[in-house]
Design goal:
mainly alpha; single chain; globular
Length: about 220
Amino acid sequence: MVMALNSVDIKKINRRLIKVFGTKKLTPHKDPIGELVRTILSQNTSDANRDKAYKRLKEKFPAWEELYTARVDSIRAAIKPAGLSSIKAPRIKNILKHLSNGDGNPDLSKLSKKSVKEGLKYLTSFKGVGNKTAACVLLFSFGKKVFPVDTHIYRVSQRLGLVPDSCGRDKAFEILNEIIPPNLYYQLHLNFIDLGRNVCKPKKPLCDECILSDICPSAFLFSRD
């Protein structure tokens, strides 16, 4: 089992990543429904496919309340580029229906007054919404102190030894939200994603180009391959 690095090391990691990927400042965008739908679309697909599907969905249904009466087939056709549209379309419609309070206008504004724990519990009660999706809504829409764990962050954190190799995504979410200082959640979340996309790639990580290679326990293993 790989032991987690201490908070000093995490701060060091953050400082180094800022040098490469820059400083990120959180400005909540106040569109929690959009964040929720967009993150559901991102599941098991690329960012490019997610963005294409989201754009097509908004072009066909400019207002979220339009999805209340929309046919599932129409939603499925719009989000086809994201993949798994036959699963995602009914889930999105069902979730927005539950959030509409019978008036067809979905609303998540009440999350602004809920704690992170309460917000996670509420959002993950919907089928198709896991910790990552719920955390993205809370962080990016409401500025809540929570650290979402996507596939890039999961991979990077395992290679850095922040979480055990054998742990699942939910356990990694739990660990990282404990060991990472809350004031670094937003900054480190985005820069870990940049690192995962551009350097710490799934099959062939560019360890020779990584600013963390001297403190990464996995760099030596990949350099021998």
